[in-house]
Amino acid sequence: QVQLVESGGGLVQPGGSLRLSCEASTSILNIGIVGWYRQAPGKERELVARITGDIVDYADSVKGRFTIARDNGRDNRKSFIYLHMYNLKPEDTALYLCSIRGARQLRGRDFWGQGTQVTVSS
Fold first, then answer.
1. 75 Cβ partners below 8 Å, 6+ apart?
2. Which stretches does DSSP call E strand in the chain?
3. The sheet that has 66-72: what strands, in order across it?
């Protein structure tokens, strides 16, 4: 079982920045796809950004403002997925969730974190 723990959310003013982090309890070698999703109250969960191999996808609403990145932990037992968010807008307010799809012995399995709340308000 892989655990994902998000952090870095909070209250920020419009135009501000945040960096979300997601720590996964497995090596990056066991991960095929990494992604950040978000869900606002009363709305469906939507994809924000995703890395599939060498392909990076962003929702149109965040292109040019958000950047997704991934990194392996020093001990090769953990990995990290980041979401750098700039020029935040009130409509970016949501619960942000990290997700991975496994590879190798975790092939085809999806894992989710509990989420971190981002609130953009003046």
1. none
2. 4-7, 10-12, 18-24, 31-39, 46-52, 55-58, 66-72, 79-85, 94-102, 110-112, 116-120
3. 4-7, 18-24, 79-85, 66-72
State the pLDDT at residue 74. Answer: 79
Confidence check: pLDDT of 75 > 90? no
Res 81: pLDDT: 97
Q: What is the pLDDT of residues 86-102, one digit of tens each?
A: 999 999 999 999 999 99
CB 38 within 8 A of CB 15: no
What is the average pLDDT value for the chain, to the nearest integer?
95
With tokens 């890395």, the residue in question is: 51
Could you tell me the CA-to-CA distances from 6 to 9, 68, 96 in Å, in that order? 8, 14, 8
Token pair in block for residue 23: 């720590």
